[in-house]
Task: inverse folding
């Protein structure tokens, strides 16, 4: 497992800490969940682009539906 240090503006760090507190999870867990979500979105985007290049419109539409579902789940 890797350890990362990131620099954030103080106000952003406070807001993230508050979100973690409201969700009753650690800031580390919140950052893990946000990172996992971003990776899933990027993988979907890459699959969509590959399907588009292959000319598979049915699969491309399916991936768009998956992206919509991911977006809806994050709200």
Result:
């Amino acid at each position: 497992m890797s350890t990362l240090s990131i620099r954030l503006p103080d106000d952003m760090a406070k807001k993230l800490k508050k979100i973690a507190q409201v969700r009753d999870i650690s800031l580390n867990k919140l950052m893990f969940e946000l990172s996992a979500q971003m990776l899933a979105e990027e993988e979907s985007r890459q699959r969509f682009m590959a399907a588009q290049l292959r000319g598979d419109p049915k699969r491309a539409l399916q991936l768009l539906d998956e992206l919509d579902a991911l977006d809806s789940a994050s709200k």
Observations:
- The radius of gyration is 16 Å.
- Residues 45-75 form one domain.
